[in-house]
Amino acid sequence: MASDPVLKISNVSRTFGAIQALKEANFEINEGEIMGLVGENGAGKSTLVKIISGFDPGFKGSYQLNGKEVKFDTPSKAEESGIAIAQQELSLIPNMSVAENIFLTGAKVKKFATLNTLSKMARPYLDEVGLTDIDPSTRINLLSVGEQHLVEVARLISREAKILILDEPTAALGELESRRILEMVQRLAKNGKSIIYVSHRLDEIFKITKRITILRDGVSQGVQETKDIDVNKLVEIMLGRELANMFPSRADHISLVSKIEVKDLWPDGVLEPVSFSAYQGEILGLSGQLGSGAGEVLASIAGALKSRSGSLTLNGETFLPKSPSQAIKKKIAYCSSDRKKDGLFLGRPIFENLTSPALDTISKFGFNFGSTEDSYAKNLAQEFLIDVKRVYDESGLLSGGNQQKVALGKWLSIKPDVLLVNEPTRGVDVGAKSEIYQRMRELAARGITIIFASTDIQEITYLPDRVITFYRGMMIDEHRLEQIKTPVILKEITDPFNETSI
Amino acid sequence: MTTITQNNKSFFPSKFLQFYKDRTLLAILLSLFAVMFVYGIFFTDNYLTITNFKAIIRDAALYGIMAIGLTFVTLSGNFFLLSLKETASICGVTFAMGMATGFGSPDLVGNFLVSLLAALSVGVLSGVIQGYFVGMGGNPIVVTLGGAGILYGIGAWWSDNLVINFKRPHDAEWLGTGSFLGLPSITLAFILIAIAAELVLRHTNFGRKVYLVGANKAAGRATGHENFSMAIIVFTICSVCCAFVAVAFVAQMDSAQSNYFSAEFGSSGDMTILVIATVMVGGNSIMGGYGSTLRTSLGAIFIAMVDNMMVLQGFNSGPRIVGVGLMIVFSIIVFGLFAKGSRAQE
What we know:
CATH topology of chain B: ABC transporter involved in vitamin B12 uptake, BtuC
Number of helices of chain A: 18
Distance between the termini of chain A: 46 Å
Number of strands of chain A: 20
Number of strands of chain B: 4
Low-confidence stretches of chain B: 1-17, 341-346
Largest interface: A-B, 59 and 40 residues
Number of domains of chain B: 1
Mean pLDDT of chain A: 86
Radius of gyration of chain B: 21 Å
Strand order of the largest sheet of chain A: 6-7-8-3-9-10
Helix content of chain A: 25-40%
Strand order of the largest sheet of chain B: 1-4
Oligomer: heterodimer
């Protein structure tokens, strides 16, 4: 070790009531280093991050910055010392300009400053994060989500942050946008910034970090040099056990009986009508980046998004659902990509969430005295590996992975023929991910047709039996199982027409 | 399987918190009752009499019934029906018109059933129309404020702003001033409606949908429970409750006027504010999805109790309105604090 670490945390523990979120955790980072921070949901990552960034002063242990013992009571104190965090949920003001957002606190800005001066001041910071092509007077809500992330980081740099914490910056981003973020992280590190990179996406962790700190159950499992470790080993340390195979093996054969036929579906965000069909008991993957139209196609099959034309044929009936409730009546279930927005009733108990689509089946003449519902909900919870004892708890209290299981599991209550899932594992840790994949495969084996849309290239390569690729609102190609190859798919969803080489 | 559930343990012992939150809110409400009660016994003459307690519940009944109706609206996430007193006003005028003039047909003069049905139909109609616009995506505040103007205007226009009298004896006395088993009929109606409403919320699909749609409209739509039909139903329930209260009040007064519910009603003088206060003091979430009609009923009795004591202590209407205002502020602070605690990990 050439130099001492700029930030060093040793033997830190933190308890919330009876629960110990962190025990004896250690963490350090050198100047200009990219340190990965990984762990399952609930392993203590967010607690550690909060302690580092000054949100949580109530911990025990030692916190050293540049070799000196420090204590931050508030996040702003930490920021003054050069520690800044870019949270997953952005704190930008959507209808103000990029430059105004960067200098929101008004530090270093004259009392009267025109947008023009602000724009000039913002330029170097934008260049540093790689937003060279963005005009600083653009309004934030005209930027893509990925660009907004970059602006957020530019804002932190403008306040002379030396240590940057990025909490899942790519969770809501597609492949291309993620690459921009990674490039920015590497550039910042080259300029001498220390970066703590928190992510569930292990491929990114391997691509950019120098060392990785792994947390499990609130205990740090030592620091690993990235070049000395591989994914399997990392996951093993994270879970404390071996994850035999994250993706379940595919079915031996898929009956080529067409279950649902989609004809000329044409929702907003898709350039031309789309037609395809899905077989009974297969998992069909729709691959594409954000805005490619894959998610829009799913939503319009479910009646959640209006389609200009087209029809579905399911069980011999031809129709086009105009609302989710019509689709549900035809046994089409749709699990959206944003569980907090329209997937869960966060303030209500888990069992109410689980039975919410099937209220008519569990009640008699509109009355519901609980016992049928109880067993119904508990069966579903069991099937989806949700702790049965917790079904009366508020669903908002569950971790991301368990929330996703509830959001998905509730659809089994209507005994669906077709299950549509948009982003089955967004913001979900590895353990829960593999459980969700396992469950999807089992459901398919029971004869349910599953169609899912995903921006995650691993998921698209290893989970489905067939893949359809989308690019900018167009359906590009279809791949049978034996033709599913990562590079080919990646090419088709990022640059199918060789535009970059022109 | 077990390893996963262990790994995903939450930071907060949620079951405990849920229990704690529910009980704490109830405890706060009950201890306030107790404090008021003890204070009343020691410092207020004529407080600890059965007649006085009957009076308290009777006071609570009128706005309590309307508040129960409004609770459905609030729980379903549609905020408030701001045309409460105007709905009551036009329904009261309708009823009195029926009793006094028989809507122009001499055979129907004084016919209770026809007048009642007419008043309730007006309630249903105004509820359906306002609910329709809210269900189509209109802002409930704007829609029902507009509704308020229109309803009040029609009532005033129709009655020429005059007091419509109908003489005793009439067929509605049993509802207005009559009693059964020693309880005023309006009190009995309050108790029955409170029980029925609580049962509907707890044990029917409709009740569950009210909570679900209130908790998250988008998720409600995704699971097949649209706010369109929900808004129409809850606004209709609320308006019918207003109509019923109007009929009972008019039957008691033997007369109606379009501004009966704006002045000289209960403590606060303004029916709408009093009813909204009742829902708030009961501790129902303004954003919907959390609360119950039981809380509303308790809130109504609590407000009536405080008001009653202030009357007995000789306060006139000004300070009593301040009292109601303070109760709203207090309840929002207390319930707001506790509601926050439970969703810490969202």
